[in-house]
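#struct-queue
[09:14] JT: dropping the first one here, sequence first, then the structure tokens:
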Amino acid sequence: MDRITAARVFISIAERGSMIAAAEALDMSRAMVTRYLAEMEAWAGARLLHRSTRRLSLTDAGELTLARCRRMLEVADDMAVAAGADADTPQGLLRITCSQALAQAQLLGAVGEYLQRYPRTSVDLQMSNRAVNLIEERIDLALRVTNTLEPNLIARQLGVCDSVVCAAPSYLAQHGTPQLPQDLASHNCLTYTYFGKSLWQFSDAGGAALSVPVSGNLSANEDFILLTAVEQGAGIALQPRYSAAPLIGQGKLVALLPGYTPLSMGIYGIYTSRQHMSPALRAMLDLLLTRFESEQRRGLS
């Protein structure tokens, strides 16, 4: 964990007497403030705050730690000034996590452009679908496709993920083609472990919403697994358009239910703090936003 940031968080808590007030002042989630405080107490080896229903106050160890944190930040700020013009130049390692499907379809091209544009940076890309703890795993940026962000997360919406219901011609020849969303209930629908919940949501041409319960003999936590199974004729799947579009264009998959639009999801960049965002992270977010906006205009997302 970043001890400089932990020191800033602890000073803010001490000065404001509240973790909520510190979170607002630092533009940081309350959960992150709590974790930084826990790290600072672990580092100091002592309880630093008396907690009451009205206000937090410093213990004797907290008073001593506060003074040390202020001295440490003075040194840190002096180093930042010494950095001069390079302080705003994207540089250093950026650790990013996202799903394999999103990385293959959207992120790899952005990373290549980013590294060419900012030669003093490097990227460590972690493939994972689980919601990681950014601080504990030292992740700078997590990309997620979701409509249910936790309220304590700091996130920037980068784009919109449109979806398509699709199947292979071989499956449709054997089982028939659904004409209405309700027809999906009688088909083998392959679902995404986290998103599916056995309920696919659509809107019709008039904008009316409807939900259809589906089931099947395969679920997975990665889009590319379901996409491969669908291509092999295993069933019907609801896939991100950016993953399915190439196979649909090649005739290997067929887009179904043209009169109905699956529920779109947001593509978010999640990070720990706006106030202490590094130039490298800011540059990556700006680049991703530009690329997603461009693809949205071309109808690829």
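[09:21] JT: and here's the second one, same format:
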Amino acid sequence: MLEAAAFGALAGAMLAFPGAAAEAATEALTLWARAVAPALGPFMVCMLMISGRVGGSVALRTAMGWLSGSPGGARLMRELGLRGRAALRAAAMTGTMSPMFLIGTVGAWLGDRRLGWGILACHILGALAIGLCIRHPERKDASAPSPVPLGTALRESALALLTVALCMMLGSVAARLTACAFPALPMEARAALQCALEVTAGVKAILSLNTSNAAPLVCAACSFGGLSLLMQNAAFWQESGVTLGQLALLRLLHAILSGALCAAAVSVFFLH
């Protein structure tokens, strides 16, 4: 009922501000085409092709999840049939963003690829720390899932990328229309709202503020991921019993920890 009310309100706002809605959707789709799809798509295909040949090792699939980024990590873990705290731990560790996006795109936006590497390190360390805090009974590695044919890997990756694009557009439209409905919102509040709904445009909004704390804020925003990324991961985790609310709490803790790690790293390594 709540979801229906939220999407009903969004549809009404789109009718009230059609130009702003179309512009926000176009901007989100442009970001997807230029920054997200090139970073996520090729790696997702490669990881799916490899996944059926690495057995049921949770550790290996976690590392592969870090390489492919969300929602690729959730897709790789789904094959193991994890449940309960084991699934929650895996969700905490693999809900990360693509290294190619953080290093190549975010690093370029910040004007220093070293910052991209620093954000990636803090991002991964934060996810690992949150996951290790969730204890679960020892389990043997699952039996090896069947290898994924190339055609299947291409189709699944294409579908995942289209899902990412639609979620990005929904998040960006919701953020833009909220700003239209409340024009007195300060820029900082608009950037925070954008990050809460759709992280790629949220990162751009943070950078537009020209703040000296851009890198830690960007790291925190990427670690939370926004509602758009949460919904993408939830679609893969729902069969394991991990709820959207649990994912949101994990990512919030991840954002706080990785943002603090990044602030410390920037003060030690990047300030002169």
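[09:30] RK: nice, looked through the second one.
[09:31] RK: The chain is about 80% helix and 0% strand.
[09:31] JT: good to know. The two ends are 53 Å apart (CA to CA).
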